[in-house]
Amino acid sequence: MDRIAAKFVHGAAEITREIEVASAADPPETYSIWLPVLGPDPDLPATDDPWEAVYVREVNPAGEPAWIYRFQALVDPEE
Fold first, then answer.
1. Which residue in 31, 19, 18 sits closest to 75, CA to CA?
2. Contact status, residue 46 vs residue 39, Cβ threshold 8 Å
3. Where are the extended beta strands (E) located within the chain?
4. Residues sharing a CB contact under 8 Å with residue 43, sequence separation 6 or more, in sequence order
5. Which pLDDT score, from 0 to 100, does residue 55 have?
6. Which of 19, 32, 34, 37 lies 20 to 30 Å from 76, alpha-carbon distance?
7. Distance (Å, rounded) from C-alpha 4 to C-alpha 6?
8. Which of the two residues, 76 and 71, has the higher pLDDT score?
9. pTM summary value
């Protein structure tokens, strides 16, 4: 396993973080992040199963980090 820096983009929001991938030379085409479902009180634990946020890989034209993962969709855990 390799660790790479990747930029995650969702609209105007961006965050760069390290992720673990099988190969730094060819990271996966998609990457998922699990998002908790919060109830009305954010201090209490999540109320349901987490949702999966799916991001699709692109080459970063700015160069660093080499990869951008752009938000594609939320996957409902019930479906």
1. 31
2. yes
3. 2-10, 13-21, 30-37, 48-59, 67-75
4. none
5. 96
6. 19
7. 6
8. 71
9. 0.78
